[in-house]
Amino acid sequence: MSAGGGPRAIRVVLADDEALVRAGVRAILDSDPEIEVVGEAGDGREAVDVVLEHRPDVVLMDVRMPVLDGIAATGEIVEVAPGTGVLMLTTFSDDHYVAQALELGADGFLLKTGDPRELAVGIRAVKAGGAYLSPQVAKRVIRAYGGTRPGSRAVRAREARNRVEGLSGREVEVLRLIGAGLSNAEIAARLHVVEGTVKAYAGALFKHLGVRNRVQVAIIAHHANLVDDSP
Fold first, then answer.
1. Strand ranges (DSSP E) for the chain?
2. Residue 56: which domain range?
3. How many domains is the chain built from?
4. How many helices (H) and strands (E) does the chain have?
5. What is d(CA 74, CA 90) in angstroms, rounded to the nearest whole number?
6. Does a structural domain hold residue 230?
7. For residue 209, how many C-alpha atoms fall within 13 Å in the half-sphere facing its CB?
8. Measured in whole angstroms, how far is the alpha carbon of residue 225 from the centre of its chain?
9. pTM, entire model
10. Rounded (10°) CA dihedral 176, 179, 185, 191
11. Which of 4, 185, 208, 210 has the fewest CB atoms within 10 Å, i.e. the most exposed one?
12. Does one domain contain both 141 and 158?
């Protein structure tokens, strides 16, 4: 892409201990001219090494892998390669890992058995600085994250509303749009402001809410009932 003067392809690393899964994901991504798979890894330790070698935009990270699992690998990548977004590949049995991944800085979640077209959508969202929650996994992610805190859904909603108190009207609107899964560029277009302004609002939200990434911001928006959760 860049050789012809166009935008640089989104650089991706695949991390999964099943070679057949990696081959399938690579085949899907290779069909997209805007995405380039620059490396693969069969375990979490190798994933960290490959990310350090290639410095990709996004790593697709399986949760369950040998040597170092995807959760621990995510924590290391967030620390040593903060410019790389981490998109977790989960299964229906991985819910108890979700909260850990969120706390460590994962940027999104895809269901391994979901729509293959979501791979490119999620990768683009994370590359653009957004958080991506697959529609099939979003409510499970929100529920799993909330499950790490004591109290009922009503209690969590009250806690979230308390955390949102003190935000300006525009900050609440940015919070709502992050919760809806929009990237900075999409929010800027929606609010008719420049992208740098949205980044400033997002940074202020991170500080005010005491969170590390956009997925956590999105979850607070959902718990505070700022986002329509209806299917």
1. 10-15, 35-41, 58-62, 85-90, 108-111, 132-133
2. 2-146
3. 2
4. 11, 6
5. 13
6. no
7. 27
8. 20
9. 0.70
10. -10
11. 4
12. no
